[in-house]
Amino acid sequence: MANIHNATTFQLAQTLDLHGTSIFLIVNHQTALQPLLLAWNDLQFEPNKHALIGWAWEGPTQKNPEDKWLEGCVWWLVSTQSEGALAKSVL
What is the pTM of this model? Predict the structure, then answer.
């Protein structure tokens, strides 16, 4: 898996030795769940797979946009299998 346009995905995939298709989406507060829904849709057709879903962000804070930046990321490894899961959700 390689993404020239997204170094975070590339580094994470190499570190975790992940292989497969990747997609990079730009989302906002109205479309933030789109990556999760796409992964859920993909897992419905191939239930023995896993999907790594991540959100990364950076930008000025609301309180002081001149000198404060907010950065972070969240990654979820999701599957239709519940064995070894930290949490279970039914969609």
Answer: 0.64
